[in-house]
Automatic annotation (TrEMBL):
Regions crossing the membrane: 27-48, 60-86, 106-133, 145-167, 194-217, 248-267, 279-299, 311-332, 352-375, 444-465
Name this polypeptide is given: Short chain fatty acid transporter
Keyword Membrane found: yes
Sorted UniProt keywords: Membrane, Transmembrane, Transmembrane helix
Cellular component annotations (GO), alphabetically ordered: plasma membrane
Keyword Amino-acid biosynthesis: no
Source organism phylogeny: Bacteria, Pseudomonadati, Pseudomonadota, Gammaproteobacteria, Lysobacterales
Length: 470
């Protein structure tokens, strides 16, 4: 690899990528190390080995519903994106870029814009766009950098959009625990993701992320293509002709149409009785929508089932790794030590104790980012964190809606190097976390000071409003 003709950031990205490819462990090993570290930390603060063991075992299967939801995010997104009409649309989008560097920025832009509507769709759609671009013989695109760009939606701005778990929860009083609603009241989107400060922060993050994509993209000489990683880029295979009489229903659209109509009927009722944003924020509804639309778009059951079969291997990392994160979350929140306090209580107490009105956004942002590395679940972590930090926001007279946005922006930072959320995308791309984290690490180096600085500066423009009860 000759980097003499590369720019400063591109050289740094290539060195970071080379280091991560050599030293960054497999995602499962990374999660297993997290379990060990958190267990040792819990016991060092007074949790007995029996308590730590029980907490790990009790939490191991706690994310099974969420694990299946995440697996279906991959399957549903893959099924829709590989439907003939959508696959043709992705191929049309893939014709736009003229250079490898331009293609990487193009993927990053589409991924980030899509994530403001749905983080799950942005992962799969971005990954399939990268694969479509990789099929172009006239385009020499670095497959690693493009994969990292496809991840920017979840790694940079997803929590600032409509699928923000914390903002959704705070806007829906029926979804909040009584203890939390008494502290925060109801915070509509106008006080969180639709604040002009929030929109400005999101816009700046998108522009800066694209600049980093541009300056860290390797030149054609140093680009590593999909074929370098053994990823064979071929178009979705055509449906083979029916060979046996028993396959008639598999090739007939009759069952797809009937099941699809039932699904559309339920979705119609769901969206008619709830606000659209609330309905789509439910992962079960989101997955149901994608599976129903995917079934109808494929038209024939055999085409739909073939797409599901191709998608299932992409879920392997999710299925085997999420239980470890369930164990980590349980060790943090259900392994009390000295003073009957858990490790989560001690972490939050430490950060809240050192905060003041002027430094609250910086302290809370740093805390959310650190804890998010060990508990990478935006909604679940918010339920653990919100009672402490939002009470502190009240005590210090910090704008409550902005406190939610501080959480949202900071919570996304560890995603840039945490393989937990990379798994669905990596499954689509056929890569390992070590292949892309060198480039996402460069994003992290810029995002940390930028995000924390903007959160602090923009927060100064807001004034405290007491909680508004429903």
């Amino acid at each position: 690899m000759n980097t003499t003709n590369e720019g400063l950031l591109a050289r740094a990205a290539l060195r970071s990528a080379a280091w991560s490819e050599r030293w960054f462990p497999d995602a499962w090993v990374f999660a297993a190390l997290g379990v060990v570290i958190v267990a040792i930390a819990a016991m060092s603060f007074g949790a007995t080995p029996a308590v730590a063991v029980n907490a790990f075992g009790d939490g191991f299967w706690s994310l099974i519903p969420f694990t299946m939801q995440m697996a279906f995010v991959v399957i549903g997104g893959y099924v829709v994106a590989t439907a003939p009409v959508v696959a043709r649309f992705i191929d049309v989008l893939a014709r736009v870029p003229r250079t490898g560097r331009g293609a990487i920025c193009y993927v990053g832009l589409i991924s980030m814009l899509a994530s403001l509507l749905s983080w799950g769709f942005s992962l799969v759609f971005g990954g399939l766009l990268v694969r479509a671009l990789a099929r172009r013989d006239d385009l020499r695109m670095d497959y690693r950098a493009a994969g990292a760009a496809a991840y920017l939606g979840l790694g940079a701005v997803w929590a600032m959009g409509l699928s923000s778990s914390a903002a959704q929860l705070q806007a829906n009083p029926k979804s909040m625990p009584p203890g939390l609603i008494n502290i925060t009241g109801v915070l509509p989107f106008s006080e969180t993701i639709f604040l002009w400060q929030s929109i400005a922060l999101t816009t700046i993050l998108i522009l800066v992320s694209l600049l980093i994509c541009w300056f860290t993209a390797p030149s054609d000489h140093n680009a590593r293509t999909a074929s370098d990683y053994g990823v064979t880029e071929t178009a979705t295979p055509a449906l083979p002709p029916r060979q046996r009489p028993g396959e008639w229903l598999e090739y007939s659209p009759l069952l797809s149409l009937l099941i699809g109509l039932l699904g559309l009927g339920w979705l119609g009722y769901e969206f008619a009785t709830k606000p659209a944003v609330t309905a789509i924020a439910n992962l079960n509804t989101y997955n149901f929508l994608f599976l129903t639309v995917g079934l109808l778009l494929h038209w024939r059951p055999r085409s739909f089932l073939n797409a599901v079969s191709r998608a299932v291997p992409s879920t392997a990392g999710v299925l085997i790794q999420f239980p470890l994160y369930g164990g980590i979350a349980s060790l943090l929140t259900h392994a009390p030590g000295f003073g009957d306090q858990t490790l989560s209580h001690r972490l939050s107490g430490l950060f809240v104790h050192v905060a003041s009105t002027d430094t609250f956004t910086l302290v809370m942002g740093a805390y959310s980012a650190i804890l998010g590395f060990f508990v990478p679940s935006g909604g679940g972590k918010w339920l653990v964190e919100a009672p402490y930090v939002m009470q502190a926001a009240n005590d210090l007279h910090v704008h409550l809606g902005w406190a939610v946005q501080v959480y949202n922006a900071a919570e996304a930072l560890p995603n840039l190097i945490n393989p937990f959320w990379m798994l669905p995308l990596l499954g689509v791309l056929g890569l390992k976390a070590r292949d892309v984290v060198g480039f996402t690490f460069m994003q992290l180096l810029v995002h940390v000071p930028l995000v924390l600085g903007l959160l602090w500066a923009l927060g100064l423009t807001l004034t405290y409003v007491p909680p508004v009860m429903p």
